[in-house]
Design brief:
This protein is an alpha+beta fold. Among the domains are: about 1-135 and about 195-240, no CATH class; about 260-370, no CATH class; about 390-435. About 35% of the residues lie in helices and about 15% in strands. The strands form 3 sheets. The chain has a 7-stranded mixed sheet. Strands 8-9-10-11 form a 4-stranded antiparallel sheet, with helices on one face. It has a 3-stranded antiparallel sheet with strand order 12-13-14. Strand 6, helix 2 (about 100-110) and strand 7 (about 115-120) form a beta-alpha-beta unit. Helix 1 packs across helix 2, helix 4 (about 135-150) packs antiparallel against helix 5 (about 155-165) and helix 15 packs antiparallel against helix 16. One of its GO terms (cellular component) is nucleus. Belongs to the FHY3/FAR1 family.
Protein backbone atom coordinates (compact mmCIF):
# COMPACT_ATOMS: atom_id res chain seq x y z
CA UNK A 1 0.00 0.00 0.00
CA UNK A 2 2.80 2.43 0.85
CA UNK A 3 4.45 1.83 -2.52
CA UNK A 4 1.27 2.93 -4.28
CA UNK A 5 0.44 5.76 -1.88
CA UNK A 6 3.46 7.64 -0.60
CA UNK A 7 1.45 9.25 2.20
CA UNK A 8 0.01 5.95 3.44
CA UNK A 9 0.94 5.59 7.10
CA UNK A 10 0.95 2.56 9.37
CA UNK A 11 2.20 1.48 12.77
CA UNK A 12 2.58 -1.93 14.42
CA UNK A 13 2.45 -2.52 18.17
CA UNK A 14 3.86 -5.72 19.67
CA UNK A 15 4.01 -7.09 23.20
CA UNK A 16 7.14 -7.99 25.19
CA UNK A 17 7.34 -11.33 23.37
CA UNK A 18 7.25 -9.72 19.93
CA UNK A 19 3.69 -10.88 19.24
CA UNK A 20 1.38 -8.67 17.22
CA UNK A 21 -0.94 -6.67 19.48
CA UNK A 22 -2.31 -3.64 17.58
CA UNK A 23 -2.03 -2.46 13.97
CA UNK A 24 -3.18 0.96 12.73
CA UNK A 25 -3.03 2.36 9.21
CA UNK A 26 -4.12 5.69 7.73
CA UNK A 27 -4.84 6.47 4.08
CA UNK A 28 -3.60 9.67 2.46
CA UNK A 29 -7.08 11.14 1.94
CA UNK A 30 -7.56 11.20 5.72
CA UNK A 31 -5.55 14.43 5.62
CA UNK A 32 -8.31 16.23 3.75
CA UNK A 33 -11.25 14.89 5.76
CA UNK A 34 -12.87 16.84 8.55
CA UNK A 35 -15.38 14.53 10.23
CA UNK A 36 -14.45 11.04 11.37
CA UNK A 37 -16.88 8.28 12.21
CA UNK A 38 -15.24 5.62 14.39
CA UNK A 39 -17.04 2.32 14.91
CA UNK A 40 -15.93 -0.53 17.16
CA UNK A 41 -18.63 -3.04 16.29
CA UNK A 42 -17.36 -4.33 12.95
CA UNK A 43 -16.39 -8.00 13.12
CA UNK A 44 -16.12 -7.86 16.90
CA UNK A 45 -13.49 -10.20 18.39
CA UNK A 46 -11.69 -10.41 15.03
CA UNK A 47 -11.07 -7.19 13.09
CA UNK A 48 -12.15 -3.97 14.74
CA UNK A 49 -12.62 -0.24 14.33
CA UNK A 50 -12.80 1.24 10.83
CA UNK A 51 -12.37 5.01 10.48
CA UNK A 52 -15.03 6.27 8.07
CA UNK A 53 -15.43 9.72 6.53
CA UNK A 54 -17.33 11.50 3.75
CA UNK A 55 -15.89 12.58 0.41
CA UNK A 56 -16.87 15.40 -1.96
CA UNK A 57 -19.59 13.21 -3.50
CA UNK A 58 -21.17 12.54 -0.09
CA UNK A 59 -19.96 8.94 -0.31
CA UNK A 60 -18.68 7.03 2.69
CA UNK A 61 -14.94 6.48 2.42
CA UNK A 62 -12.62 4.42 4.57
CA UNK A 63 -9.88 6.61 6.03
CA UNK A 64 -8.05 3.88 7.89
CA UNK A 65 -8.41 0.86 10.14
CA UNK A 66 -7.10 -0.61 13.34
CA UNK A 67 -6.72 -4.23 14.38
CA UNK A 68 -6.93 -4.40 18.17
CA UNK A 69 -6.32 -7.24 20.58
CA UNK A 70 -8.29 -5.54 23.37
CA UNK A 71 -10.63 -2.59 23.84
CA UNK A 72 -9.13 -0.89 26.87
CA UNK A 73 -8.07 2.73 27.29
CA UNK A 74 -4.41 1.99 26.57
CA UNK A 75 -5.19 0.31 23.24
CA UNK A 76 -7.43 3.18 22.17
CA UNK A 77 -4.72 5.68 23.10
CA UNK A 78 -2.25 3.78 20.93
CA UNK A 79 -4.70 3.84 18.02
CA UNK A 80 -5.46 7.56 18.34
CA UNK A 81 -1.82 8.59 18.85
CA UNK A 82 -0.86 6.60 15.75
CA UNK A 83 -3.69 8.25 13.85
CA UNK A 84 -2.42 11.70 14.86
CA UNK A 85 1.13 10.88 13.78
CA UNK A 86 -0.23 9.83 10.41
CA UNK A 87 -1.95 13.24 10.16
CA UNK A 88 1.19 15.14 11.22
CA UNK A 89 -0.41 15.81 14.63
CA UNK A 90 -3.29 17.77 13.11
CA UNK A 91 -6.25 17.19 15.41
CA UNK A 92 -9.63 16.28 14.00
CA UNK A 93 -12.44 18.80 14.09
CA UNK A 94 -15.03 16.21 15.08
CA UNK A 95 -15.31 12.50 15.76
CA UNK A 96 -18.34 10.25 16.29
CA UNK A 97 -18.17 6.99 18.22
CA UNK A 98 -20.28 4.56 20.20
CA UNK A 99 -21.05 5.38 23.82
CA UNK A 100 -17.96 3.78 25.32
CA UNK A 101 -16.10 4.96 28.43
CA UNK A 102 -12.75 3.67 27.16
CA UNK A 103 -13.01 5.57 23.87
CA UNK A 104 -14.22 8.67 25.68
CA UNK A 105 -11.22 8.65 28.04
CA UNK A 106 -8.78 8.06 25.17
CA UNK A 107 -10.22 10.90 23.07
CA UNK A 108 -10.17 13.30 26.03
CA UNK A 109 -6.50 12.47 26.59
CA UNK A 110 -5.27 12.40 22.98
CA UNK A 111 -7.65 14.84 21.24
CA UNK A 112 -8.79 17.37 23.86
CA UNK A 113 -9.79 19.95 21.23
CA UNK A 114 -11.82 17.54 19.08
CA UNK A 115 -15.61 17.61 19.35
CA UNK A 116 -16.69 14.12 20.43
CA UNK A 117 -20.20 12.94 19.60
CA UNK A 118 -22.03 9.75 20.53
CA UNK A 119 -23.99 7.70 18.04
CA UNK A 120 -27.63 8.52 18.78
CA UNK A 121 -28.92 5.34 17.12
CA UNK A 122 -27.58 3.11 19.89
CA UNK A 123 -29.39 5.19 22.50
CA UNK A 124 -32.69 5.08 20.65
CA UNK A 125 -32.29 1.32 20.21
CA UNK A 126 -32.24 0.93 24.01
CA UNK A 127 -35.19 3.27 24.51
CA UNK A 128 -37.84 0.58 24.12
CA UNK A 129 -36.30 -1.48 26.91
CA UNK A 130 -35.82 1.50 29.20
CA UNK A 131 -39.50 2.50 28.75
CA UNK A 132 -40.86 -1.04 29.04
CA UNK A 133 -42.67 -0.37 32.33
CA UNK A 134 -43.98 3.02 31.32
CA UNK A 135 -47.66 3.41 30.50
CA UNK A 136 -48.20 4.09 26.79
CA UNK A 137 -44.62 3.16 25.96
CA UNK A 138 -45.04 3.70 22.21
CA UNK A 139 -46.27 7.25 22.72
CA UNK A 140 -43.49 7.89 25.25
CA UNK A 141 -40.90 6.72 22.72
CA UNK A 142 -42.33 8.98 20.00
CA UNK A 143 -42.35 11.93 22.38
CA UNK A 144 -38.73 11.24 23.33
CA UNK A 145 -37.68 11.38 19.68
CA UNK A 146 -39.59 14.64 19.22
CA UNK A 147 -37.93 15.97 22.37
CA UNK A 148 -34.49 15.21 20.93
CA UNK A 149 -34.97 16.27 17.31
CA UNK A 150 -37.62 19.01 17.31
CA UNK A 151 -35.95 21.61 19.49
CA UNK A 152 -34.81 24.94 18.09
CA UNK A 153 -32.61 26.03 21.00
CA UNK A 154 -31.11 24.84 24.27
CA UNK A 155 -33.66 26.63 26.45
CA UNK A 156 -36.55 24.82 24.78
CA UNK A 157 -34.80 21.46 25.13
CA UNK A 158 -34.15 21.95 28.85
CA UNK A 159 -37.77 22.88 29.49
CA UNK A 160 -39.20 19.98 27.49
CA UNK A 161 -36.76 17.47 29.04
CA UNK A 162 -37.88 18.44 32.54
CA UNK A 163 -41.54 18.13 31.55
CA UNK A 164 -40.91 14.73 29.93
CA UNK A 165 -39.14 13.27 32.97
CA UNK A 166 -41.93 14.44 35.28
CA UNK A 167 -44.71 13.25 32.98
CA UNK A 168 -43.45 9.65 32.89
CA UNK A 169 -41.96 9.54 36.42
CA UNK A 170 -38.42 8.85 35.25
CA UNK A 171 -36.60 10.74 38.01
CA UNK A 172 -35.23 7.52 39.54
CA UNK A 173 -34.09 5.98 36.26
CA UNK A 174 -30.27 6.07 36.21
CA UNK A 175 -30.12 5.58 32.45
CA UNK A 176 -31.99 8.82 31.75
CA UNK A 177 -29.97 10.65 34.39
CA UNK A 178 -26.68 9.61 32.74
CA UNK A 179 -28.04 10.60 29.33
CA UNK A 180 -28.81 14.05 30.64
CA UNK A 181 -25.34 14.45 32.17
CA UNK A 182 -23.80 13.76 28.75
CA UNK A 183 -26.42 15.64 26.73
CA UNK A 184 -23.75 17.79 25.06
CA UNK A 185 -22.35 14.67 23.36
CA UNK A 186 -25.52 13.43 21.68
CA UNK A 187 -28.39 15.96 21.69
CA UNK A 188 -28.35 17.72 18.26
CA UNK A 189 -29.18 21.18 19.61
CA UNK A 190 -25.89 21.19 21.55
CA UNK A 191 -23.84 20.09 18.53
CA UNK A 192 -25.37 22.11 15.71
CA UNK A 193 -22.52 24.62 15.64
CA UNK A 194 -20.18 21.95 14.27
CA UNK A 195 -20.00 20.31 10.87
CA UNK A 196 -21.31 16.71 10.75
CA UNK A 197 -22.58 16.32 7.18
CA UNK A 198 -25.94 15.48 8.70
CA UNK A 199 -24.65 12.43 10.57
CA UNK A 200 -26.48 11.64 13.79
CA UNK A 201 -25.26 8.08 14.12
CA UNK A 202 -22.55 5.77 12.87
CA UNK A 203 -24.70 4.72 9.92
CA UNK A 204 -21.76 5.60 7.67
CA UNK A 205 -19.74 2.86 9.34
CA UNK A 206 -22.66 0.47 9.16
CA UNK A 207 -22.89 1.12 5.43
CA UNK A 208 -19.18 0.35 5.22
CA UNK A 209 -19.89 -2.93 7.02
CA UNK A 210 -22.21 -4.00 4.21
CA UNK A 211 -19.60 -3.03 1.64
CA UNK A 212 -16.83 -5.10 3.24
CA UNK A 213 -19.11 -8.08 3.77
CA UNK A 214 -18.48 -8.97 0.14
CA UNK A 215 -14.74 -9.23 0.79
CA UNK A 216 -14.16 -10.11 4.46
CA UNK A 217 -15.80 -12.54 6.86
CA UNK A 218 -15.24 -13.55 10.48
CA UNK A 219 -13.38 -16.60 9.21
CA UNK A 220 -10.87 -14.55 7.17
CA UNK A 221 -7.27 -15.06 8.22
CA UNK A 222 -4.95 -12.10 8.76
CA UNK A 223 -3.16 -12.74 5.46
CA UNK A 224 -6.44 -13.00 3.57
CA UNK A 225 -7.72 -9.91 5.35
CA UNK A 226 -4.84 -7.80 4.01
CA UNK A 227 -5.32 -9.10 0.47
CA UNK A 228 -9.10 -8.63 0.47
CA UNK A 229 -8.84 -5.24 2.15
CA UNK A 230 -6.82 -3.86 -0.75
CA UNK A 231 -9.31 -5.25 -3.26
CA UNK A 232 -12.18 -3.68 -1.31
CA UNK A 233 -10.47 -0.29 -1.19
CA UNK A 234 -9.74 -0.42 -4.91
CA UNK A 235 -13.41 -1.18 -5.63
CA UNK A 236 -14.44 1.68 -3.35
CA UNK A 237 -12.14 4.15 -5.08
CA UNK A 238 -13.37 3.02 -8.48
CA UNK A 239 -16.85 4.10 -7.43
CA UNK A 240 -15.44 7.43 -6.31
CA UNK A 241 -13.66 7.87 -9.64
CA UNK A 242 -16.89 7.05 -11.48
CA UNK A 243 -18.71 9.66 -9.39
CA UNK A 244 -15.97 12.15 -10.28
CA UNK A 245 -16.48 11.39 -13.96
CA UNK A 246 -20.27 11.80 -13.74
CA UNK A 247 -19.87 15.03 -11.83
CA UNK A 248 -17.55 16.59 -14.40
CA UNK A 249 -19.28 15.34 -17.54
CA UNK A 250 -23.00 15.36 -16.70
CA UNK A 251 -24.47 18.45 -15.08
CA UNK A 252 -27.97 18.14 -13.59
CA UNK A 253 -30.47 20.71 -14.79
CA UNK A 254 -31.44 23.76 -12.79
CA UNK A 255 -34.92 23.83 -11.28
CA UNK A 256 -35.32 27.59 -11.22
CA UNK A 257 -34.17 30.85 -12.75
CA UNK A 258 -32.27 31.94 -9.67
CA UNK A 259 -28.77 33.14 -10.53
CA UNK A 260 -27.30 31.58 -7.42
CA UNK A 261 -28.60 28.14 -8.43
CA UNK A 262 -26.59 28.37 -11.66
CA UNK A 263 -23.54 29.29 -9.60
CA UNK A 264 -24.01 26.27 -7.34
CA UNK A 265 -24.43 24.11 -10.45
CA UNK A 266 -21.01 25.12 -11.76
CA UNK A 267 -19.28 24.70 -8.38
CA UNK A 268 -20.82 21.68 -6.65
CA UNK A 269 -20.29 18.04 -7.49
CA UNK A 270 -23.31 16.37 -9.02
CA UNK A 271 -24.38 14.59 -5.83
CA UNK A 272 -24.01 17.69 -3.66
CA UNK A 273 -25.91 19.84 -6.16
CA UNK A 274 -28.78 17.36 -6.17
CA UNK A 275 -28.71 17.41 -2.37
CA UNK A 276 -28.92 21.21 -2.53
CA UNK A 277 -31.88 21.02 -4.91
CA UNK A 278 -33.85 19.18 -2.23
CA UNK A 279 -33.64 22.36 -0.17
CA UNK A 280 -34.55 24.41 -3.22
CA UNK A 281 -37.79 22.44 -3.64
CA UNK A 282 -38.64 23.01 0.02
CA UNK A 283 -38.37 26.75 -0.56
CA UNK A 284 -41.86 26.66 -2.05
CA UNK A 285 -43.22 25.17 1.20
CA UNK A 286 -41.99 28.13 3.22
CA UNK A 287 -43.65 31.41 4.07
CA UNK A 288 -41.71 34.52 5.01
CA UNK A 289 -42.68 37.48 7.13
CA UNK A 290 -40.88 40.56 8.35
CA UNK A 291 -41.40 41.36 12.03
CA UNK A 292 -41.74 44.94 13.17
CA UNK A 293 -38.40 44.73 14.94
CA UNK A 294 -36.68 43.02 12.00
CA UNK A 295 -33.81 45.49 12.39
CA UNK A 296 -33.49 45.35 16.16
CA UNK A 297 -29.72 45.24 15.63
CA UNK A 298 -28.43 47.98 13.35
CA UNK A 299 -27.33 46.60 10.00
CA UNK A 300 -28.87 43.14 10.57
CA UNK A 301 -32.17 42.14 8.95
CA UNK A 302 -34.35 39.47 10.59
CA UNK A 303 -36.91 37.32 8.77
CA UNK A 304 -39.39 34.83 10.19
CA UNK A 305 -39.75 31.65 8.12
CA UNK A 306 -42.68 29.26 8.53
CA UNK A 307 -41.59 25.85 7.24
CA UNK A 308 -44.52 23.62 6.20
CA UNK A 309 -42.31 20.89 4.69
CA UNK A 310 -42.45 19.02 8.02
CA UNK A 311 -44.58 19.43 11.12
CA UNK A 312 -44.09 19.26 14.85
CA UNK A 313 -44.93 16.02 16.69
CA UNK A 314 -48.66 15.46 17.21
CA UNK A 315 -49.61 18.89 15.79
CA UNK A 316 -50.20 20.53 12.43
CA UNK A 317 -48.13 23.57 13.31
CA UNK A 318 -45.18 24.44 11.06
CA UNK A 319 -41.68 24.95 12.37
CA UNK A 320 -40.68 28.56 12.84
CA UNK A 321 -37.13 29.65 12.03
CA UNK A 322 -35.31 32.96 12.06
CA UNK A 323 -32.99 34.06 9.25
CA UNK A 324 -30.49 36.87 9.78
CA UNK A 325 -29.00 38.76 6.85
CA UNK A 326 -26.22 41.33 7.12
CA UNK A 327 -25.87 43.29 3.85
CA UNK A 328 -22.44 44.60 4.83
CA UNK A 329 -20.31 41.52 4.26
CA UNK A 330 -23.20 39.46 2.86
CA UNK A 331 -23.51 37.30 5.99
CA UNK A 332 -26.37 34.79 6.29
CA UNK A 333 -27.45 32.57 9.16
CA UNK A 334 -30.48 30.52 10.15
CA UNK A 335 -31.62 29.18 13.50
CA UNK A 336 -31.95 25.67 12.00
CA UNK A 337 -28.12 25.51 11.68
CA UNK A 338 -28.39 23.52 8.46
CA UNK A 339 -25.39 25.18 6.85
CA UNK A 340 -23.24 24.82 9.96
CA UNK A 341 -23.93 21.08 10.25
CA UNK A 342 -24.17 20.10 6.56
CA UNK A 343 -22.33 22.77 4.60
CA UNK A 344 -25.34 23.52 2.34
CA UNK A 345 -27.63 26.55 2.50
CA UNK A 346 -31.05 25.68 3.93
CA UNK A 347 -34.43 26.36 2.33
CA UNK A 348 -35.05 29.13 4.87
CA UNK A 349 -32.02 31.13 3.75
CA UNK A 350 -32.93 30.45 0.12
CA UNK A 351 -36.39 31.85 0.85
CA UNK A 352 -34.83 35.00 2.27
CA UNK A 353 -32.55 35.33 -0.78
CA UNK A 354 -35.58 35.01 -3.04
CA UNK A 355 -37.56 37.53 -0.99
CA UNK A 356 -34.70 40.07 -1.03
CA UNK A 357 -34.00 39.35 -4.71
CA UNK A 358 -30.35 38.68 -4.01
CA UNK A 359 -28.59 37.15 -7.02
CA UNK A 360 -25.10 36.50 -5.70
CA UNK A 361 -24.04 34.36 -2.74
CA UNK A 362 -20.70 34.94 -1.06
CA UNK A 363 -18.03 32.31 -1.77
CA UNK A 364 -17.83 31.49 1.94
CA UNK A 365 -21.10 29.58 1.55
CA UNK A 366 -19.66 27.29 -1.12
CA UNK A 367 -17.47 24.96 0.89
CA UNK A 368 -14.27 23.77 -0.72
CA UNK A 369 -14.99 20.18 0.32
CA UNK A 370 -18.08 20.08 -1.95
CA UNK A 371 -16.51 21.67 -5.05
CA UNK A 372 -15.85 19.66 -8.19
CA UNK A 373 -12.97 21.87 -9.35
CA UNK A 374 -10.78 20.86 -6.40
CA UNK A 375 -8.04 18.34 -7.15
CA UNK A 376 -8.16 15.20 -4.98
CA UNK A 377 -4.70 13.62 -5.35
CA UNK A 378 -5.53 10.44 -3.39
CA UNK A 379 -7.71 9.24 -6.29
CA UNK A 380 -4.79 9.43 -8.68
CA UNK A 381 -2.19 8.09 -6.27
CA UNK A 382 -4.11 4.91 -5.69
CA UNK A 383 -4.52 4.12 -9.38
CA UNK A 384 -0.89 4.54 -10.38
CA UNK A 385 -0.80 0.80 -10.94
CA UNK A 386 -3.34 1.13 -13.73
CA UNK A 387 -7.05 1.57 -14.19
CA UNK A 388 -8.96 -0.24 -16.91
CA UNK A 389 -11.24 2.73 -17.66
CA UNK A 390 -8.52 5.35 -17.32
CA UNK A 391 -9.12 8.48 -19.40
CA UNK A 392 -6.48 9.79 -21.79
CA UNK A 393 -6.15 12.91 -19.62
CA UNK A 394 -5.37 10.82 -16.57
CA UNK A 395 -2.90 8.69 -18.52
CA UNK A 396 -0.98 11.85 -19.41
CA UNK A 397 -1.09 12.93 -15.78
CA UNK A 398 0.25 9.56 -14.65
CA UNK A 399 3.07 9.72 -17.18
CA UNK A 400 4.17 13.13 -15.93
CA UNK A 401 3.80 12.11 -12.30
CA UNK A 402 6.03 9.10 -12.88
CA UNK A 403 8.88 11.34 -14.04
CA UNK A 404 8.39 13.82 -11.20
CA UNK A 405 8.46 11.05 -8.60
CA UNK A 406 11.63 9.58 -10.11
CA UNK A 407 13.33 12.96 -9.90
CA UNK A 408 12.17 13.38 -6.29
CA UNK A 409 13.54 9.96 -5.35
CA UNK A 410 16.94 10.91 -6.77
CA UNK A 411 16.91 14.33 -5.13
CA UNK A 412 16.29 12.87 -1.66
CA UNK A 413 19.91 11.68 -1.52
CA UNK A 414 21.51 15.06 -0.77
CA UNK A 415 20.54 18.53 0.40
CA UNK A 416 22.22 20.01 -2.69
CA UNK A 417 19.95 18.05 -5.02
CA UNK A 418 16.85 18.96 -3.03
CA UNK A 419 17.65 22.67 -3.23
CA UNK A 420 18.42 22.32 -6.91
CA UNK A 421 15.03 20.66 -7.56
CA UNK A 422 13.10 23.21 -5.49
CA UNK A 423 14.79 26.07 -7.31
CA UNK A 424 13.97 24.81 -10.78
CA UNK A 425 10.46 23.70 -9.84
CA UNK A 426 9.72 27.24 -8.66
CA UNK A 427 10.96 28.62 -11.97
CA UNK A 428 9.02 25.98 -13.87
CA UNK A 429 5.84 26.89 -11.98
CA UNK A 430 6.44 30.57 -12.81
CA UNK A 431 6.79 29.75 -16.52
CA UNK A 432 3.64 27.63 -16.59
CA UNK A 433 1.57 30.26 -14.78
CA UNK A 434 2.79 32.91 -17.23
CA UNK A 435 2.73 30.73 -20.33
CA UNK A 436 2.81 32.44 -23.73
CA UNK A 437 2.83 30.25 -26.84
CA UNK A 438 4.40 33.04 -28.90
CA UNK A 439 7.39 33.47 -26.61
CA UNK A 440 8.04 30.05 -25.12
CA UNK A 441 10.42 27.77 -26.99
CA UNK A 442 9.07 24.23 -27.17
CA UNK A 443 11.45 21.32 -27.91
CA UNK A 444 10.70 19.58 -31.20
CA UNK A 445 11.77 16.18 -29.92
CA UNK A 446 9.93 13.53 -27.97
CA UNK A 447 11.39 12.52 -24.64
CA UNK A 448 12.37 8.87 -24.69
CA UNK A 449 12.06 7.18 -21.34
CA UNK A 450 15.17 5.04 -20.85
CA UNK A 451 14.70 4.44 -17.12
CA UNK A 452 12.33 1.52 -17.28
CA UNK A 453 14.92 -1.21 -17.55
CA UNK A 454 15.70 -0.77 -21.26
CA UNK A 455 19.30 -0.85 -22.44
CA UNK A 456 21.16 2.24 -23.60
CA UNK A 457 21.65 2.65 -27.31
CA UNK A 458 23.76 4.86 -29.52
CA UNK A 459 21.40 7.77 -29.04
CA UNK A 460 21.98 7.64 -25.29
CA UNK A 461 25.73 7.88 -25.79
CA UNK A 462 25.30 10.88 -28.06
CA UNK A 463 23.04 12.41 -25.44
CA UNK A 464 25.73 11.97 -22.80
CA UNK A 465 28.19 13.83 -25.00
CA UNK A 466 25.78 16.67 -25.69
CA UNK A 467 25.41 18.11 -22.21
CA UNK A 468 27.46 17.90 -19.06
CA UNK A 469 26.13 19.34 -15.85
CA UNK A 470 28.40 19.91 -12.89
CA UNK A 471 27.20 20.85 -9.42
CA UNK A 472 29.47 22.38 -6.83
CA UNK A 473 28.87 23.66 -3.36
CA UNK A 474 30.38 27.05 -2.60
CA UNK A 475 30.79 27.58 1.11
CA UNK A 476 28.22 24.88 1.75
CA UNK A 477 25.44 27.26 0.69
CA UNK A 478 25.32 28.18 -2.96
CA UNK A 479 25.00 25.72 -5.80
CA UNK A 480 26.77 26.53 -9.05
CA UNK A 481 25.79 24.90 -12.29
CA UNK A 482 27.91 24.82 -15.44
CA UNK A 483 26.18 23.98 -18.69
CA UNK A 484 28.54 23.01 -21.50
CA UNK A 485 27.36 22.20 -25.00
CA UNK A 486 29.43 19.64 -26.87
CA UNK A 487 29.66 17.45 -29.85
CA UNK A 488 27.61 17.11 -32.94
CA UNK A 489 25.13 14.70 -34.35
CA UNK A 490 21.47 14.19 -33.52
CA UNK A 491 20.53 13.90 -29.89
CA UNK A 492 18.59 15.40 -27.02
CA UNK A 493 19.67 18.91 -26.03
CA UNK A 494 19.37 18.97 -22.26
CA UNK A 495 20.86 21.69 -20.05
CA UNK A 496 20.38 23.45 -16.78
CA UNK A 497 17.12 24.94 -17.99
CA UNK A 498 14.32 24.18 -20.37
CA UNK A 499 14.77 23.61 -24.05
CA UNK A 500 16.29 21.11 -26.39
CA UNK A 501 17.69 20.90 -29.87
CA UNK A 502 19.16 18.67 -32.53
CA UNK A 503 22.88 18.51 -33.03
CA UNK A 504 25.52 21.14 -32.56
CA UNK A 505 25.10 21.12 -28.79
CA UNK A 506 22.03 23.34 -29.09
CA UNK A 507 20.47 23.37 -25.65
CA UNK A 508 17.63 25.67 -26.56
CA UNK A 509 16.71 28.34 -24.03
CA UNK A 510 19.02 28.45 -21.04
CA UNK A 511 17.53 28.91 -17.64
CA UNK A 512 18.93 29.65 -14.22
CA UNK A 513 20.00 33.22 -14.96
CA UNK A 514 18.69 35.92 -12.68
CA UNK A 515 18.87 39.70 -12.90
CA UNK A 516 20.38 41.78 -10.12
CA UNK A 517 16.96 42.22 -8.49
CA UNK A 518 16.40 38.46 -8.37
CA UNK A 519 13.64 38.43 -11.00
CA UNK A 520 13.49 36.23 -14.07
CA UNK A 521 14.69 38.18 -17.14
CA UNK A 522 12.59 38.31 -20.32
CA UNK A 523 13.51 35.70 -22.87
CA UNK A 524 14.79 38.33 -25.30
CA UNK A 525 17.54 39.19 -22.78
CA UNK A 526 18.74 35.60 -22.39
CA UNK A 527 21.83 34.50 -24.32
CA UNK A 528 21.54 32.77 -27.66
CA UNK A 529 23.00 29.34 -27.20
CA UNK A 530 23.34 28.92 -30.96
CA UNK A 531 26.27 31.30 -30.63
CA UNK A 532 29.43 29.44 -29.58
CA UNK A 533 30.38 32.42 -27.42
CA UNK A 534 27.49 31.57 -25.15
CA UNK A 535 28.04 27.85 -24.96
CA UNK A 536 29.56 28.08 -21.48
CA UNK A 537 27.44 29.74 -18.83
CA UNK A 538 28.93 29.82 -15.36
CA UNK A 539 27.88 30.89 -11.89
CA UNK A 540 24.20 29.99 -12.01
CA UNK A 541 23.24 30.55 -8.39
CA UNK A 542 20.50 28.33 -6.98
Amino acid sequence: MQQKDREFYYSVDVDCFGRLRNVVWVHSHSKVAYVICLDTTYLVNRYNMPFVGVNQHRQSILLGCALMSSEDITSYKIVLSTWLRGLNNVHLLAIMTDQCDSIKAAINAMMPNTVHRYCIWHMLAKLRTKLSRVLDGKIAKAEFKALVFDNINVVEFERRWTDYIKKYNLEERDWFYKLYLEKEKWVPVYLNDHFWDGMLSTQRSEGMHAFFDGFITRQSTLKLFVQQYELAIRAKFEKELEAEYRSRCFEPKCLSEFVWEEKFQTCYTREVFEFFQVQLRKLYHCEISTPEDHQAIAGVENYIILDYSFRRFNTRDPFVFTVEYTPIGEYLSCSCKWFETRGILCCHILKALSHRRINNVNERYILRRWRKDVVHPHLKRFFLGGYSRMTSEYMMYRELLKHFERVCDIALDTEVMRRYIKYHLNRLEHDLLNWDDDQMIIPDWEFEDTHDGEGEGEGDEVHKQLVEVELEVIGGVEVVGRCVGRGGGRGHGRGCGRGGGRGGGNTGLAEGIEQDDGTIPPQSSLPDLNDEANWEIEDLTV
